[in-house]
Amino acid sequence: MHSRRTQNLRRLKTRIRRHETQKRVRSLSKRRRFNRHKRALHARCYAVPKDHSKKSPNPRAPKQCTRARDGTVFDLPRRFSRADCQRFIRASNKVNAKAMGFTQKSSCAPWIPATKPSKRRPRAGGSSAPPLNVYGQKLGVCDTKGTGFTRDGMCTPHSRDSGSHLVCLKNMGTEFCEKTQQSDWCGSVNTDNWCVCVHKFNQYKQNDGLQAIDCDATHIDALGSSDWVKAACPGHITT
Questions:
Q1: What distance in Å separates the CA atoms of residue 97 and residue 91, rounded to the nearest whole number?
Q2: Contact 180, 200 (CB under 8 A)
Q3: Which is deepest, 50, 74, 94, 185, by most CB within 10 Å?
Q4: Structurally, how many domains does the chain consist of?
Q5: Are 140 and 238 in the same domain?
């Protein structure tokens, strides 16, 4: 009886192993069929048949293709075939298809190579150039506790700064707000120096404001909008 029980147990284990094997085989074959179907619908653009286009479609060509350099998916067929596009690209300097028309660039987008990065150096005064003060030197820090439009401690111009906070006023107290007829926000400033608007600084000086400015921390662009800055900073550069 013990031997019969052992035989039954062996048969059961064999059936379980056979079932698991068949299950793995079915799963593998299903995955392979799915991959074949996926490859039939989706392929790399460089593997598309050269003559496949709307005028002469290839029935074995995929329905879509993926551009290798950025993963963009394009529908197929295109108006121009891959061979036509390669001929257009060679005729237009092989780099960025500048000489191609809009329709050609749109149809040949899967095969247009990536453009080369520009080798031009940034212009002086651009975002990579350091900001300068009224003496043409590197702009100094107005206050280390945080001032300026971006609160980085420097009086630098900004595209969203409509007031042009370019003048570094020393020891600013409540007098500045009184002379410029503003609300008393000057009393809430927790710094010694402050980047003030150019036109408000002109108004401050016209009303006999006494506080001096830090010329080393005043931006060079303030010279073009304020004669008071020019008077306060002898030896400034000519703009």
A1: 9
A2: yes
A3: 74
A4: 2
A5: yes
